[in-house]
Amino acid sequence: MSLKNRERWGAISQGLHWLVAALVLLLGVVGLVMGELPRVPKYFWVYTAHKSLGITVLALVVVRLGWRLYAGAPPAVPGTPGWQQRTASLTHGLLYALVLAMPLSGWLYDSASGLRPFRLFGLVEMPKLSAPDERLADLSHALHEWGFWLLIALVLLHAGAALYHHLHLRDATLARMLPHGWLSSPNKDLR
Ligand code: HEM
Question: Topology of domain 11-190, per CATH?
Answer without folding.
Answer: Fumarate Reductase Cytochrome B subunit (1.20.950)
